[in-house]
Amino acid sequence: MNIKHDKEKVIKKGIDLFWCNGYSNLGVDKICKATGMTKGAFYNAFKSKENFLLSCIEAYGNMNMNYLTEQLSDQNKRAIDKILNMYVIMLENQPSLNFTGCLTNNMMSEISSVNELVGNATARAFDNLLDVIEPMVIKAQLEGDISPSVDSKTVTELIHSTFFGVLTRAKATRDNKKSISAMTLLIKSLKTI
Amino acid sequence: MNIKHDKEKVIKKGIDLFWCNGYSNLGVDKICKATGMTKGAFYNAFKSKENFLLSCIEAYGNMNMNYLTEQLSDQNKRAIDKILNMYVIMLENQPSLNFTGCLTNNMMSEISSVNELVGNATARAFDNLLDVIEPMVIKAQLEGDISPSVDSKTVTELIHSTFFGVLTRAKATRDNKKSISAMTLLIKSLKTI
DNA sequence: TCATTTGTACCGTTCGGTCTGTTTGAGTAC
DNA sequence: GTACTCAAACAGACCGAACGGTACAAATGA
Q1: Distance between CA atoms of A157 and B165, rounded to whole angstroms?
Q2: d(CA B41, C1' D18) / Å
Q3: Tell me: the pLDDT tens digits for B44-67?
């Protein structure tokens, strides 16, 4: 059968839409208009708006995994520098993203306490990222930039959770300076515990 | 004039409602039903739903300031212990709050990037809390539990932002253990930078 | 008395989703 | 190559409910 609307492209557009508008503030009509679909096409491709969001969260999570893997790949740099640099870059991107933060964090905050499926999906996306970051934390421990005495998993949790926190803060103030300072301080603090 | 509905009580109920449901997912009808008001009474007391939220955010912020001030007041304990203990308690409360997180954080995340007034109100609530916490951070620096070489304001930012981050994480997983571990690790990390 | 507060019907719009008829094109038979 | 089949894909009118908010009359009480 001929498929007029590429599901992947629609999901990519959906990511942007949920990212900018949130979940409850975005209607299926808007999704259809933005993707050039009709309701018939949309509901033929996706079971429901909720189900569409789940697909978007998963796709966004995978995109992020690839992005982080790439950001952390440079073999010539110290692990700790790569980690800090990556987070600083993501925070520096916020003004151009209109301080929309991170889709995973946004959905976690808006509806994960009310919708278990979304909770699971966002938690999975978060955990997947930790799996990408943790090896770099272990490397930083071996390189003496993070105390080897602490559990690498917990450090990774701390780092990425802090990122979510300062990201939300940047959103409200529409200013990323303090967030970058806080994130930088965190990474420095991890050296000797 | 006789006022049937105490504005303060209505705002208190509103805090709960926005806290549990978010902003876009909560209708004025539900607010009226939950507070026992009619629409006439509601719109006589508040300019709009948005305006009502602003009042709720401000009241919630003040409540939080009082709560934190009290939590940090014990003169016999070391400042660092009071700080950590306070955050652990707030995280331990999450299961009984159905992992609804923190209203300020929730509203920051859901709509502050789209609604400037809410952005300002949540940012103000956040800053007010920092003003309560920072003196305790300074005290901890004097007591040798936080490195005196770093800016106390930035440390305070970091601590409370991290709290927001781990709170969101706890929401999605409906589990506060990792959040408590991460928060504890952060406070320990601040000792020697 | 009269401004304020309240009750409620009502407004136009949007919500998520359904229904039904039409179009599409790969597969099959010849 | 052509004709036919048929399930999938699509268009869009339509559904009842809920949305934020208004209008206006009735009730209230200083």
Answers
A1: 10
A2: 20
A3: 999 999 999 999 999 999 999 999
